[in-house]
Amino acid sequence: xxxxxxxxxxxxxxxxxxxxxxxxxxxxxxxxxxxxxxxxxxxxxxxxxxxxxxxxxxxxxxxxxxxxxxxxxxxxxxxxxxxxxxxxxxxxxxxxxxxxxxxxxxxxxxxxxxxxxxxxxxxxxxxxxxxxxxxxxxxxxxxxxxxxxxxxxxxxxxxxxxxxxxxxxxxxxxxxxxxxxxxxxxxxxxxxxxxxxxxxxxxxxxxxxxxxxxxxxxxxxxxxxxxxxxxxxxxxxxxxxxxxxxxxxxxxxxxxxxxxxxxxxxxxxxxxxxxxxx
Length: 278
What we know:
- This protein is mainly alpha-helical.
- The protein has helices at about 1-25, 30-50, 60-90, 95-115, 115-125, 130-135, 160-180, 190-195, 205-215, 225-235, 245-250, 260-275.
- The termini are far apart.
């Protein structure tokens, strides 16, 4: 239990640091490098934690290598690929850039095709091969192994935890590349800012609402990070929400009705529906 809390705090700190980095730097080439350094440091700490820990059973070990470790490593893979793609892109018109991003997306489709059997197993949340896929020192030559498996640290790796990390990273990268390919169809930030709509409720209320939407997995099938959601809202509503992590901490300190804005929304909607029935 103690280790679980340490790892949860490590992941929370990492995602908060990444969000702060992205808020302070708008250039992807600058923030991606810094994010990679932060993520590398977090993974090194994670490896140290596991090196000092003895898994109590297979279930705990499988959960770590199937779920926990890939959450960290997928961030590193995603930003590595993002940095490589953006640093190599041509200085060209939108048509050439679109072709460039489409070509990069084709590489992802190749990955999905090459690993389609395992991806199907993973996405179906199957478990019958977990002991072969996600337990250390256990691999079967009859199963397709990751090409990088033999360069792995056997104390901190299993035959397929890296493949899970790649799936998570590539799913996120697919969303990024798709947005770039269809960038000309996206409403420009200037149009957002010229909108007459203005958020006039307290900023803390918007923070409460956005975090509730994040927890309910309302954006990008639940794959959007809180920072992405808050940046979108700030752009769409032409508002600065500041350090939403601090605001969320203040919400947690409320003595009564910690989600008072959500309670108000529910009350007003119920009232409207009740009045409409009359």
